[in-house]
Task: inverse folding
């Protein structure tokens, strides 16, 4: 089982990871390629370095994002949380399904810092 966090705004991927209003949290089975549960989690106020701890304490072990700064990527890596960036703007469920099916197409990191 994996627990994927996807930053969202108005039900779609928010490309600015650190300033999202919520996270869609998706519990999925990589072997069966199924989603077992989806929930939303209010994001804490933006504070550099806070999100890796915040999400890690909630069992998240993967992030799908549009973009993320290098320091944040390093902090997630230290917590063994896999980060996929460059994801397109879509619903969290579609992004998770695409990942599980091996069809998630990513582009450039949407973060410039």
Result:
């Amino acid at each position: 089982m994996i627990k994927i966090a996807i930053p969202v705004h108005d039900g779609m991927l928010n490309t600015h990871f650190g300033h999202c209003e919520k996270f869609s949290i998706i519990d999925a089975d990589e072997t069966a390629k199924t989603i077992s549960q989806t929930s939303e989690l209010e994001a804490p106020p933006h504070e550099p370095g806070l999100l890796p701890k915040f999400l890690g304490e909630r069992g998240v072990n993967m992030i799908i994002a549009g973009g993320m700064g290098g320091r944040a990527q390093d902090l997630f890596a230290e917590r063994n949380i896999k980060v996929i960036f460059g994801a397109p703007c879509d619903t969290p469920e579609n992004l998770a399904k695409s990942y599980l099916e091996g069809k998630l197409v990513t582009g450039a990191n949407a973060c410039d810092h």
Observations:
- The chain has three helices and six strands.
